[in-house]
Amino acid sequence: MSRYRIAVIPGDGIGVEVTAPTVDLLEHLADRAGFEIAFDHFDWSCARYQETGAMMPPDGLDQIRDHDAILLGAVGWPGVPDHVSLWGLLIPIRRRFQQYVNLRPISVMPGLPGPLRDPGEVDFVVVRENVEGEYSEIGGRFSTGTAQEMAVQEAVFTRAGVTRIVDYAFDLATTRRGHVTSATKSNGIVHTMPFWDEIVRERAERQPSVSWRQEHIDALAAKLVLDPSSFDVIVGSNLFGDILSDLAAAVAGSIGIAPSANLDPERDFPSMFEPVHGSAPDIAGKGIANPIGALWSASMMLDHLGEKRSGDALLAAIRATLADGDVRTPDLGGTATTRELAAAVQEAI
Amino acid sequence: MSRYRIAVIPGDGIGVEVTAPTVDLLEHLADRAGFEIAFDHFDWSCARYQETGAMMPPDGLDQIRDHDAILLGAVGWPGVPDHVSLWGLLIPIRRRFQQYVNLRPISVMPGLPGPLRDPGEVDFVVVRENVEGEYSEIGGRFSTGTAQEMAVQEAVFTRAGVTRIVDYAFDLATTRRGHVTSATKSNGIVHTMPFWDEIVRERAERQPSVSWRQEHIDALAAKLVLDPSSFDVIVGSNLFGDILSDLAAAVAGSIGIAPSANLDPERDFPSMFEPVHGSAPDIAGKGIANPIGALWSASMMLDHLGEKRSGDALLAAIRATLADGDVRTPDLGGTATTRELAAAVQEAI
Ligand SMILES: CC(C)[C@H](C(=O)O)[C@@H](O)C(=O)O
Ligand SMILES: CC(C)[C@H](C(=O)O)[C@@H](O)C(=O)O
User: In chain A, whose CA is at the least distance from the CA of B161?
Assistant: First the structure.
């Protein structure tokens, strides 16, 4: 019997509220399919930071490096600067565990109309580079406190880093509709984006069956709104992928339910699964957060663990529950609680 | 009688086609209102680059520095790398002439429905920082040709540069509905964006009647689609402002007609006015490009020159022509030519 050990980091706010029923549902799925799943909980969070001065213990990463996967709720809380909480927890996990692929599937869900008059068939995946690029510790302030003060930030793109994310995107496209769109800004950003384009052009030759194009990030953002059904796989840098995936979720009407996977495709380290939404201080503590983002992320985790049958069953149950539409949290126009919606998904399995 | 000298740079592709009728219409407006306007034409373009190896002559900027304003069509053409054409013409003009404000008004135009089911009342302005930030010459390649190859790019934010764009946005908000949204990414980009936030917080105190909030660029992009009527003035860095203004134009259904102004508010140098659209090689030479972006930009130029009555008349004529809907270029679903649509606007004046 397969056994999995999962590190659970509920984090802050509604992260805690959506993670609890997700763990329950995973246990249910394991019973049903006959595999074993054990959960270790870690209280790493802004609450912990406010008590101890650190988001996680110094040996935090060692404590979870041998787990089969990480399930994360949400990180961030008012009073703790975002760059403190995120660079103290989320970003080190992504980087030290070489989770260089951030995968965000986007599709219009049945029964959730979304903001567009006529979205067409929306079904694509954003493949975001997740460990280098525009987010970096390199840089700082100069002449602080004077009129000459400035801040600089170094974006770092490596050939190895760009190559592997581009290869991942093209490989993924061969299992889908065979088209890649590369997000760039080589007309404005002088050194890194022409480099990115050059590598995309080279690596595209590995997969001659995949067609591809590049679009500048400004035009691409516009096109996501004007013609979202024209995309299959979008590959972008850390920042561009971040912007495009949130935007795409909005276009698909699914910002509150969007899932994400932070993958180390080499499997040297555990991968991490987290809903796209944040800790939502405005509704935290009320028990009304939408658990679909967390559940959908759990379904991606099951796929990654090799339990694809259970992952598919969970995703099908999510779709059926949303399509049915009887049980909805307030963000989807209903009155159900987090627990009630999760229970409805469990029943649909 | 007031006299203005305008430098006209039609540039490439449809840039040439939309600039010609815009110049004619400006002459017509000048006759009508009793001011004088003289145009000097400059053939700076990718065509020039392909002949001479330079987008503009070495003393190009000196040739236009004493003009009252610059009217630009579009820059860029297949075969000339974008970073060559743009850093050889558009970006030096913006930078050397201290056009630190890039202003892009966004509104849903009568008769142009746009992609959103229910956009509400969309009427806001994107104030984009235009001379520093993420676009910079600082950086380069390292270990070229090896497996260790990398490219780095330095983003540079100065206190002076951020302060003046933020002040501009807050001042502008006092003449509108009194709300500013600041685009940030201080949760991901460690050094420059917390610096940006800090300056916004400080400078906001200058205009206590203006309310403001900050949003991370990913969430902000999503909100532009989900709730575009919640914005009044959006202020963002060079890159964020670029992305948001294209996205916003798409949301408003007006990507082909959007105008922009590159302003030196200190008036030490000429400001530059250009449609947001590019040179559009796919339809260039056919005489069917939409001239509204260029005409609307010309209306912003008239405002800037102090000929507000004429600027308003031109904008009103644009609105009336679009609302009327009889004369439309193919991008708006009609069959009119560039000249025909421009003539219709002229008639409506
Ligand atoms: C062409 C490009 C360099 C330019 C920019 O990003 O500044 C364009 O997108 C714009 O918005 O004016
Ligand atoms: C919270 C923030 C640092 C993070 C990111 O930008 O990576 C988030 O927006 C995400 O997309 O996971």
Answer: A150
Task: Give me the phi and psi of B38, to 5 degrees please.
Answer: -115, 140
In a domain, B107, yes or no: no
Under 8 Å CB pairs connecting chains A and B tally to: 207
Q: Within a domain: residue A109? A: no
The three-class DSSP label of residue B338 is helix
CA of A258 to the centre of ligand 1 (A): 31
Give residue A110's pLDDT.
Answer: 79
Domains held by chain A: number: 2
Report d(CA A117, CA B108) in Å as an integer. 15
Q: Is 90 exceeded by the pLDDT of residue A59?
A: yes
How far B281 CA lies from chain A's nearest CA (Å)?
Answer: 15
Confidence of residue B82 (pLDDT cuts 50, 70, 90): confident
Of A222, A246, A247, the CB nearest to B249: A222
Rg over alpha carbons for chain A, rounded to the nearest Å, is: 20
Contacts of B184 in chain A (CB under 8 A): none
The verdict on B242 and B278 lying in the same domain is no
Whether residue A203 is predicted with pLDDT greater than 90 in this model: the reply is yes
Torsion of CA A126, A131, A134, A137, to 10 degrees: 160
Q: Which of A252, A270, A288 is the last residue of a domain?
A: A252
Q: Which domain holds residue B152?
A: 115-252
Q: Choose one of B222, B252, B282: the last residue of a domain.
A: B252
CATH code assigned at A260: 3.40.718.10
Q: Which residues of A touch B217 (CB under 8 A)?
A: 239, 242-243
**Which ligand places an atom closest to the C-alpha of B15?**
1
A285 Cβ below 6 A of ligand 1: no
- pTM for the full predicted model: 0.96
Is residue B145 included in any domain, yes or no? yes
Confidence of residue A108 (pLDDT cuts 50, 70, 90): confident
Angle at the Cα of B290 from the Cα atoms of A115 and B106, rounded to 5 degrees? 40
Instruction: Give residue-wise pLDDT tens across range A292-308.
Output: 999 999 999 999 999 99
